[in-house]
Amino acid sequence: MVPKDIENKEAVLNFIRTKTERPVSLREIAGALRFPKRESRTLKRILQTLTHSGEIFKTRYGLYGPVEQLNLTTGFFEAHRDGFGFVVPDKPGERDLFVPPRKTSGAMSGDKVVARVDSPARREGCIIKILERARKKVVGTFTRDGDMFYVKPKSRKIPVGILISPANRAGAKSGDNVVVELTSYPSAIKPPEGKILKVLPDIVEPVHEIEMIIEEFSLPQKFPAAVLSEVKELSGEIEMRKRVDCRDLLTVTIDGETAKDFDDAVSISKTGEGYTLLVHIADVGHYVPWDSAIDLEARRRGTSVYFPGSVIPMLPEKLSNNLCSLVPHQDRPTFTAEMHFDTKGRMLKKDFYPSVIHSNERMTYTSVKKILVDHDRAEREKYGYLLESFVMMEELCDILRTQRMKRGSLDFDLPEPEVMLDIQGRPEAIVRAERNLAHMMIEEFMIAANEAVASHLEGLELPSIYRIHEKPDPHKLEELRPIFQSFGLHFKKPDAGTFQSLLKKIKGTIEENLLNVMLLRSLKQAKYSTENTGHFGLASESYTHFTSPIRRYPDLVVHRILKEALSRKKISKETRAHFEKLLPEIAAQSSKTERIADEAEREIVNAMRVWFMKDKLGDEYTGIISNISSKGMRIQLKDFFVEGSLHVSSMPDDYYRFDEQSYRLIGRRRKKTFSVGKEVNVRIERVDIEAREIVLGLV
Fold it and tell me: Where are the beta strands (DSSP E) in 451-553?
């Protein structure tokens, strides 16, 4: 049987959404749904839950209505340092809502909010209610201004200082870096207040910067005692009775040199029709049951967070680097996606089953590249027994990738920075991370496995978590039209097909990186959802995350749903109802923790860039202009994968104005121009550790 409270919740939501023509009172809802008086407390609790989740809204007169009928939208607020921000709606397909500075109602970045749409045409509105606060702690600099004390937040997304009463200073002195607990949040008329929890050490080494960013984003480092107690009891025993034995297959993992958590391994063979690809994924669910202490902590963390030289793992080390990691020459429990393709890349058959593998080799991307691209004799001899498999993988990768591009998948070739540390943990080089054939092979095989699992679960009509990427907002692409026209690039309609044609046109041009970034920013961020709306970036009708359960919680959940589907002919009503209630919360939490992890990882790379350049003051370099605005230019140095900013005020030979039509800075007197892709000679004028910024001047 479906739990009564879930039945009641669905009935209440359905009534408010479909049976009402105006906001209704508690009494009207109770009467229409024939709630007994003794259950009025239950009804109030249900209405509170629906209001908190943002599915309905309670007016100032105590009446209830669906948010969409009240011209409201629910979502997460993304703040900008200049005070304005955007509400990113929960509902797929809705455009982001612009919120001017005076209409944020004290919302902070990451808060879940309800906003009213004031202008549908301009997609502008105001926040009217804050459902859930994202931040409890803030990191910043303690400052004294006369008799007033406040903390200036490190995050640029918090544009207001936090007031500190003298009693809550905790001994902090002006200039100290501190962690503040918020005791009251900002409103439209008053700033936030807080108390200092601890004074952080002075930043004299990069490791202190990393510690500060970990505090800034409230990333959990230590595992609770209950989790460690459960981990201690785990053993590596594998019950073979319910598993397919894949130990005799030639199987390899392919990862980066420094990786320790090996989620996936692959096996391949040729058939009369084409290829059989087996993607084996670590069976984390074998060790981590639903609602165990380990599971609840993994759900809270949502994802592993990777920094240069270190990681904050989602799972304790005994699991992530040992029992679950598909290390070579060891039996490991896995979940296998077996896929049969013809010679044109069409999937003929797919199958899924719990399995056991015995990985033959732990390969690296560099090693596989040496074998397949460089034809390195020593490497090919060393792994001679795997050579045939690698050649087959290359063939299948090429076929699958060609098919994916044909169907409209986007290929953003954006360079990523790789920070190399010395033995003291200081950055000694920042280089462009290599993406070679071996990376592409694993990428294609994981995409294929994720699509196969998603379409299988969708075909069974089971509740699940999908990885969705919404179609672009035509308005945002339209806003980019003048910029692209300034580079001689024109498009007729701002639709989905335009993206792929633009990416092809700019491939290999000097402005490729800039325009790629602009196109990427015009797209919505991929996220997790229980409603499948497809994945625009991959041109996939049905996509999920299945292939990384050691480091992503949604993958572990999808494993459990798939295992449940394989073990029973039919999912019970109780199980289905349990999934329907739980999965939306997990999808929202996982999307949130992913955003936080991405932001923290970006901040740490920015900090490492600044630390790397701090002893290079006055040095001169050649750089390439990567972006231009009315404020100045962003310049990518040629010697290192490092960017700096050059303000128009430090261009003393003329007054420069920004021409939007040609996307250039033009000198008023001498008509000298600066455009994207142009080489310039610059000097390192200032390295601001505090602001994590590199300031350049023209030579």
Answer: 466-468, 527-529
Residue 213 within any structural domain of the chain: no
Closest-CA residue to 22 (of 60, 66, 61, 86): 66
Query: pLDDT by residue (tens digit) across 299-312?
Result: 999 999 999 989 99
Of the two residues 12 and 355, the one the predictor is more confident about is 355
Q: Are residues 461 and 384 in the same domain?
A: yes
Domain boundary among 522, 540, 560: 522
pTM equals 0.88
- Contacts of residue 43, Cβ cutoff 8 Å, sequence gap at least 6: 8, 12, 26, 29, 30, 35
pLDDT band of 2, cuts 50, 70, 90: very low
Are 128 and 167 found together in one domain? Answer: no
Whether 52 and 31 have beta carbons less than 8 Å apart is answered as no
Distance between CA 278 and CA 248 in Å, rounded?
13
pLDDT in tens, 481-514: 888 888 888 888 777 678 888 888 888 888 888 8
Strand partners of residue 635: 625, 644
Question: Could you tell me the pLDDT band of residue 26, with boundaries at 50, 70 and 90?
Answer: confident
User: What distance in Å separates the CA atoms of residue 444 and residue 359, rounded to the nearest whole number?
Assistant: 20
Considering the domain architecture, whether residues 172 and 261 belong to the same structural domain is answered as: no
Residue 45: which CATH number?
1.10.10.10
What's the CA gap between 479 and 491, in Å, rounded?
12
3-class DSSP assignment, residue 285: helix
What share of the chain in percent tops pLDDT 70? 99
Print the domain residue range for 632.
620-698
Own/partner long-range contacts of 630-634 (Cβ < 8 Å, ≥24 apart)? 630/657, 630/658, 632/665, 633/665, 633/674, 633/680
**CATH number of the domain enclosing 181:** 2.40.50.140
The rounded distance, in Å, linking the Cα atoms of 183 and 195 is 7
Residue 438: which of 391, 488, 503, 480 has the closest Cα?
391
357 and 445, same domain (yes or no)? yes
- Establish if 234 belongs to a structural domain: no
350 and 461 fall within a common domain:
yes
Give the count of domains, the chain: 6
Query: Both 480 and 454 in a single domain?
Result: no
Percent helix, strand, coil in the chain (nearest 5)? 35, 30, 35
Q: What is the mean pLDDT of the chain?
A: 91
- State residue 280's pLDDT score: 98
pLDDT tens readout for residues 587-636: 999 999 999 999 999 999 999 999 999 999 999 999 999 889 899 999 99
Specify the 3-state DSSP secondary structure of 136.
coil
Same structural domain, 322 and 339? yes
The strand ranges marked E within 263-360 are 264-270, 274-282, 305-307, 310-312, 331-342, 347-358
Say which amino acid occupies 682: V
Judge residue 658's burial from the number of C-beta atoms within 10 Å of its C-beta, 0-12 exposed, 13-18 middle, 19 or more buried: middle
Among 108, 132, 156, the domain-final residue is: 132
Encode pLDDT of 420-467 as tens digits: 998 888 999 998 888 899 999 999 999 999 999 999 999 999 999 999
In a domain, 452, yes or no: yes
Residue 527 confidence (pLDDT) above 90 = yes
Judge contact between 247 and 358, C-beta under 8 A.
yes
DSSP code of 18?
H
- Residue 387 covered by a domain: yes
Are the CB atoms for 283 and 354 separated by under 8 Å?
yes
Residues 283 and 369 in one domain: yes
